[in-house]
Amino acid sequence: MGEAEEGNNCAVSPGATVTVTRPDLVVNTISAPPAAAKRGGKFPVTDTTHNLGAVAAESSRTRYYLSLDGVKNAGDKLMSSSRNVPGLAPGASRSGTVTVTIPTATPLETYFVLACADDLSQRVELDETNNCKPSSTTVTVTP
After folding, report:
1. Cβ atoms of residues 64 and 77 within 8 Å
2. Distance CA 136, CA 71 (A)
3. Do residues 112 and 135 lie in contact, with contact meaning Cβ atoms separated by under 8 Å?
4. Is 79 exposed, middle or buried (0-12, 13-18, 19+ CB in 10 A)?
5. I need a labelling partner for 41 at 20 to 30 A (CA). Which of 5, 6, 14, 60 fits?
6. Neighbours of 52 (CB within 10 A)
7. Which helix (H) or strand (E) holds 139?
8. pTM here?
9. What residue segments make up the domains of the chain, in order of their start?
10. Domain 21-142 classified CATH 2.60.40.10?
């Protein structure tokens, strides 16, 4: 049934605010890679994923890259293996270790290792730009 005035159906509660928040997954630690590794070679990577958000995060997946500059971009080389991270309460962290494999076609260069939480952006977060952390040292890929 129509009303005489359709524009007056809502009211604002005085003094009340609603804060919408989300989880925020970051990698806050990553182990140092070996100084050198062969194409097709393997090495372990240990990292810690942390939920900076004020609400719980659902389970996610961390993936690993070789990066020339330590910042994730299209030129980085995705390594095999990923790590499943269970759901994290606000402020909670979870560490884990995986063994990654350097792709056989990787150019012979020196790389940082990147660990990227929720790398495929399966979870909506407060900040989608802070998910990756580079290793503090580099690995030189050899033939």
Report:
1. no
2. 12
3. yes
4. buried
5. 60
6. 18
7. strand 132-142
8. 0.85
9. 21-142
10. yes
